[in-house]
Amino acid sequence: MSLSARIFIVYLLFVAFCSYFVLRTVMDEIRPGVRQSTEETLVDTANLLAEFLREPLLENQLQSPRIRAILKAYGQRQPNANIWGVSKLHVNHRIYVTDNKGIVLLDSSDIAAGQDYSRWNDVHLTLQGKYGARSTLETQGDESSSIMYVAAPITHAGKIIGVVSVAKPNRSLQPYIDRTQRRLGLLGAGLILLGLISGGVFSWWFSRELRRLREYALNVSQGQRAILTPGLIYSGELGQLAKALESMRNQLDGKAYIEQYVQTLTHELKSPLAGIRAASELLQTPMSEVQQKKFLANIESESLRLQQLIERLLNLALVEQQQSLQAPQNILLKPVIESLLDTRSARLTRQNIQLQLQLDENAEVYGEKFLIEQALLNLLDNALDFTPSAGKIQLRTLRTENGWIIAITNQGEPIPEFAMPRLTERFFSLPRPDTGRKSTGLGLSFVQEVMTLHRGELQLENTQDGVCATLRFPH
């Protein structure tokens, strides 16, 4: 199981447990909270009624038709109220009044008049000067039938002369409790879903960043060009790990690169150095002037070969070590190609090469100008090396669906089949037709590296009467 999956599972369990605990606690607190609020309202109502009923109680007017008519009218009222989405169609308070001995004198429901309520807590505690309240089941065993009773003393001259009690069935509060629980349930489910989505997104993001680090490390281990993409985080532990990997790659690449190139350079320098040494030894012996000029020419030729080898090796090392373009810009190809042709004009004239140009005025690529110029020079020099005198070289720029291409086609012998897959290998070279000598074998390797940096492609193929080298640049 992946690390991101484990993190998500732990996060899922944590969110589920916390959500259950919080929602369960909140749900359990809704019912007593609503009842406490209702009880507070009943206290106010009972005390208000106690003030209104003091005079009728003192004057023995509680049983008067007027008060009965008021209570009856109250019981028949239809509020038609819409309270936060809950309809209230009738009143459901019960009101009864007792004397100072707990005998019921007045009952709005006409079920307890004359009965002794002095044992009920609401009346009993109020007569003792305490806060009187009780909750009683209307039907034994049915919790939903409970009724809250809150009493207030009726006082005169500092003495309790009676008790007024207000009752409210808890079932009338249930719609509000259900509505609150339902809304909280939906809100809680939404929050849980949001939390899970957030956890999933975080796990995906974390997994993606780890996967990028893994791919980067694998590319480094396989010796491929590897770049830490800008999307990777650069802060915190992952950022530190990314920087540590990059630093390790730079150090390892540098050591391996130096070792590899020292070995390669040593091998390639042996041949020209041996030729120079042999020629210098022979020059120390008596010989004719013609022979001396011949050996001096050999020394000059081998020295030039050494210089070219070192320069091209340094250029190739530079571009191979470069992980990304340093100063990319939009480059018009026509003026660049024309400028490069000017540098080879003398050779073109000497070889009597016929040049055919098909350059689009709008041809433009995005890249590093110096590298593109060097790549084109390598291809142009190759074309000149393998084109016979009075031959043709054609340069074209073409637009495709995927970008621009530069094609350099020269007349000459086709590339042998065995050499095709090895053309971009370092130090692999074919003999030149005119001299039979090989080049450094680094030019096409350099071009290949330049195109890789530009996310492009180098293609080499035989044509009907020569060879075509194509550079494909993406949009």
Account of the protein in words:
With 475 residues, this protein is an alpha+beta fold. It contains 10 helices and 14 strands. Strand 6 and strand 7 (159-169) form a beta hairpin. Helix 1 (3-58) packs antiparallel against helix 4 (174-221), helix 5 runs antiparallel to helix 6 and helix 6 (289-321) packs parallel to helix 10.
Characteristic key phrases:
five-stranded mixed beta sheet; 10 helices; alpha+beta; single chain; 475 residues; 19% strand
Biggest pleated sheet: 5 strands, antiparallel
Count of separate structural domains: 3
What integer is the average pLDDT? 79
Order of helices and strands: HHEEEEHEEEHHHEHHEEHEEHEE
Task: Give the helix level as a range of percent.
Answer: 40-55%
H/I helix tally: 10
- Structure class: alpha+beta
Give me the CATH fold name of the largest domain.
Beta-Lactamase
C-alpha end-to-end distance: 40 Å
CATH level-4 homologous superfamily of the largest domain: PAS domain
Q: Short summary of the structure?
A:
This protein is α+β, with helices and mostly antiparallel strands. It is built from 10 helices and 14 strands. It has helices at residues 3-58, 65-75, 121-127, 174-221, 236-283, 289-321, 333-343, 345-350, 369-386, 443-453; strands at residues 81-83, 86-88, 94-99, 104-107, 133-137, 146-156, 159-169, 329-332, 354-358, 364-367, 392-399, 403-411, 457-462, 466-474.
Write the layout of secondary structure elements.
Layout: H1 3-58, H2 65-75, E1 81-83, E2 86-88, E3 94-99, E4 104-107, H3 121-127, E5 133-137, E6 146-156, E7 159-169, H4 174-221, H5 236-283, H6 289-321, E8 329-332, H7 333-343, H8 345-350, E9 354-358, E10 364-367, H9 369-386, E11 392-399, E12 403-411, H10 443-453, E13 457-462, E14 466-474
Parallel strand pairs: 9-11
Antiparallel strand pairs: 1-2, 3-4, 3-7, 5-6, 6-7, 8-10, 11-12, 12-14, 13-14
Helix pairs in contact: 1-4, 4-5, 5-6, 6-10, 7-9, 9-10
